[in-house]
Amino acid sequence: MEFLLDFLGTDYIALFIIIGIGIFLGGIKIKGVSFDSSAVIFVAIFYGYWLNIQGVDFKLPEIIQKIGLLLFIFTIGMQAGPSFFEVFKSQGAKLIILAVLSVVIGTITTALLSIGFDVDYKISVGLLTGALTSTPGLAAAIEASNSPLASIGYGIAYPFGVIGVILFVKLSPKLFGAKISKEEENYVREAQSKIPEVTNRNFEITNDNIEGRTIKDLDIRMMTKANISRIMSPNTMSVAPTAEAVLHKGDVVKAVGTEEALKRVEVLLGHSTEVEIPASGLMEIKWYVVSRRNVVNKSLKELNVKRNFKATVTRVRRAGIDLSARPTLKLRYGDRLLISSSKGNVAALSHILGDSMKEVETTSFLPVALGCVVGLLLGAIEIPLPGGSSFSLGITGGVLIAALVLSRIGKTGPIIWNLPVVGNQILRQFGLLLFLTPVGLAAGSKIAPTINEYGLNLFGIGAIITLVPMIIVVIIGRLIFKVNFLSLLGALTGGMTSTPGLTAVDSMTSTEGPQVAYATVYPFALVTIIICAQILGSL
Q: Which keywords does the record carry (predicted)?
C-alpha cells in the first residue's frame, strides 16, 4: 500500500493518470450528455480527495497550472481575435450587460443570504469570489476585509463554483430547450449575414455609352465595388482584363462582387446573361495563399496586382468566409486570394504571395511566447481606484487582451501573430489539461477538512450564489435579449470567470461563438467582481 501511495503521489505520474482517465470518462455519453475534457477536473477532485483521506498531502507544482492557464487563454484569444471586434460592434453590448449582470446578481444574492443566515460578510465575500471562481476577486476581498475569513469562504464555495458552472452549461440546452445544432447554424448564418456573400455573374454590354471606353476610364471598381475578372468579345476567346482593356457593345464580362455591387454593374454595363465565358488557354484563375511575411497587412491597393501583373483579385477567403476584394482590404497571414491572370504571371504571383500551405500550417511557438510575455506585463499593471486601492487584470485578463489585440494586428515587424487551426487546437487542449488537473486536485484536498470544520450550510449558500445568477442571466438573454444560445453560454462563463466552464461550452460546438463571447465580456466581468468584492468586503 505504501508503494502504491508513493507511486500515485508522484507529481508527473498523477498528472498523466488523471488526464488519461479523465479523457476516457469524458468520452462516455449518458443520454447525449458528456463532459469531454472537462471530466478531467472531476477525476482530479476525486484523486485529491482520496489521497487526502489516505494521509497524503499532495498537490502539483503551481507552475503547471499557470502554464496551462497561459496556453489555454492565449490560444482562445488568438482564435477569437479576428472576430472579436466585429462581434463587439454587433452584439457586444448585450453580452457585456449580461456578464456584468451575472456578477451584480451574485453580489445581491450573497448579501441577502448573509443577512438571512447571519453569515459574517468577511466569509460571504469569500463565498462570492469562490462561487464565481475569481482569484483576483479573492485578492480584492482579502485586502478590503483585512481578514483571513475571506479565503476560507473562497475555499468552501470554489469546488461547486467550478463543478456547478460545468454542470449547468452542459445541462442547460436540455433545460431551456435549445438545440445545439440549430444554434450553430444560426450563429454561422448571423456571422455571414454581417459580411455580404460574394458571387459572380456574366453581363452583356448593351450600354451605348460604354463603347470604346477602357476599364480604367470607367473606373468600374470605384463605381460599382465589383471586379471584372474576364472579358469575351464576339467570336474571340476570353481574356484576363487589364486597366487598358477596351470594352465594346456586345462583349460579355464576368463580374465578381456582392449582390448590391452586381446590381450596379448591370446598371452601368447592361443586362445579365446566361452566356458562358469559356476558359482561355492564355489565362488562369487560381487560388493563392498568403504565406509571405512582407505581404501581411498590405492592402490590395498597395499590392496592385492589376498594374504589376495584369491580374485581378476577384475574391478573398478568410476563415472560410468569402470577402469582397476591396482595394482597402488588408491581407492577413493565411488568406486565400482568387486571382485571374495570364498564365505567364502565375509563377510571379506565387512568388510575391508565397502560396505555401506548408508555411501557413507550420506552428511557430514564437508568437505564443512573446504574446504571453506581453500579456503578463499587461496583467501586472496596477490600475488605481478611488480610495487608494487598485486592481490589475492579472494573468488571465492580461494574456487574453494581449492575444485579442495581437491577433487583430496580425504582424509586428518580422513577427506574424498567427497560429494555424491545428496548432491552436493542440496547444489549447494541452493547456486546458494542465490547468484543470491541479485545479481539481486543490479543490479535492479541501473538501474533507472544510466539511468537518464548517458543516454543509456554507456549501449550500455557495451553490446558490453560483446557480442563481446563471439561471436569471440565461432567462434574460434567451427571452429578452434574444442572444444566440452558444454566445449566451460563452458570455455566462465569462461573467462567472469560469475557464473550466468555457471549456465545457467549447466542447459542445465547433464554432468560435462561445470563445468570442467569453473574450468579449471577461475584462468587464473581472473589473465588476473586483469592485463588488471590495464593496462587500468593506461592510
A: Cell membrane, Membrane, Transmembrane, Transmembrane helix, Transport
* Of 324, 339, 355, the domain-final residue: 355
Number of folded domains in the chain? 3
Q: Identify whether 77 is part of a domain.
A: yes
Domain identity same for 154 and 245: no
Buried/exposed code over 439-467 (b: 16+ C-beta within 10 A; e: otherwise): bbbbbbbbbeebeeeeeeebbebbbbbbb
Domain check: are 349 and 251 in the same one? no
Residue 506 C-alpha cell reads as 467549447
Angle at 377 between CA 371 and CA 380, to 5 degrees: 140
- Encode burial over 176-192: b for 16+ CB neighbours within 10 A, e otherwise: eebebeebbebbeeebe
Give me the amino acid identity at 3.
F
Shortest CA distance to 335 belongs to which of 347, 323, 326, 343?
A: 323
Measured in Å, how far apart are the chain's first and last C-alpha atoms? 50
Burial of 53 (0-12, 13-18, 19+ CB in 10 A): exposed
Which residues does the chain have with pLDDT short of 50?
Answer: none
pLDDT of 110? 95
531: alpha, beta or left? (left if phi > 0; alpha if psi -120 to 50): alpha
Write the single-letter amino acid at 342. Answer: S
Q: Are residues 172 and 216 in the same domain?
A: no
Whether the CB-CB separation of 400 and 522 falls below 8 Å is answered with yes
Which residues have C-beta within 8 Å of that of residue 41, sequence separation ≥ 6? 22, 162, 163, 166, 436, 437, 439, 440, 443, 500
C-alpha closest to that of 357 among 274, 449, 410, 287:
287
Same domain, yes or no, for 419 and 503?
yes
Q: Where are the alpha helices (DSSP H) in 381-416?
A: 394-409
Same structural domain for residues 408 and 513? yes
Q: Give pLDDT, residue 206.
A: 93
CB 265 within 8 A of CB 220: yes
Q: Which of 254, 256, 247 is nearest to 207 (CA)?
A: 247
Note the pTM of the prediction, 2 decimals. 0.62
Burial class (CB in 10 A: 0-12, 13-18, 19+), 207: middle
Q: Do residues 423 and 468 share a domain?
A: yes
pLDDT at 109: 96
Give the range of the structural domain holding residue 229, as residue numbers without chain letter: 207-270
Same domain (yes/no): 177, 237: no
- Residue 296 maps to which CATH number? 3.30.70.1450
Alpha helices in 410-497 (DSSP H): 421-454, 457-475, 485-495
Interval 182-238: pLDDT, tens: 988 887 777 666 556 677 899 999 998 898 898 888 888 888 888 887 888 876 666
Domain identity same for 430 and 516: yes
